[in-house]
Specification:
mainly beta; 1 helix; single chain; 9-stranded antiparallel sheet; 143 residues; Immunoglobulin-like
Length: 143
């Protein structure tokens, strides 16, 4: 069974796929058990494909164990010279495992900028950090 993806806010041109098994629990997971959850989070380096700069990220949280089902927030951001140019913020509710992919996009500008991408996963109600990753482009993009 697939869980419902609840969009909490996003910029245009974002594609998200989520596959999640649903497990409903009468008792929410404790902060201690949530803190033991391990998520693999990957922020992919931004790349240029005229006229846009793209960045993506993956989230893979499996085998919650003692935590049972958890409400997860995924927050992805694309920055240019330190300024936010696109973001995606969504939740997987009552999930006992989460696999998600997000794509961010912004129009490239003339000249050379520093483009960076970050992906952060937190438990929705406690804010406990479950995983994060950050990367920047390795070469300049010129329009």
């Amino acid at each position: 069974m697939k869980s419902t993806l609840k969009r909490l806010g996003t910029a245009a041109a974002v594609t998200v796929g989520l596959v999640s098994a649903v497990a409903f629990s009468a008792v929410p997971a404790s902060a201690a058990s949530v803190a033991s959850v391990d998520c693999t989070v990957t922020a992919n380096a931004p790349y240029y494909s005229s006229p846009y700069v793209y960045a993506g990220g993956t989230v893979d949280c499996d085998d919650w164990g003692a935590a049972g089902s958890v409400d997860v927030i995924v927050d992805a951001k694309l920055t240019m010279d330190g300024s936010l140019v696109d973001d995606d913020y969504f939740a997987a509710i009552d999930a006992d495992n989460v696999k998600a992919y997000t794509t961010l996009r912004a129009t490239n500008k003339t000249g050379n900028q520093t483009w960076c991408n970050s992906v952060v996963v937190k438990e929705r109600t406690t804010g406990i950090l479950l995983g994060s990753d950050y990367t920047c482009e390795s070469g300049g993009f010129f329009a």
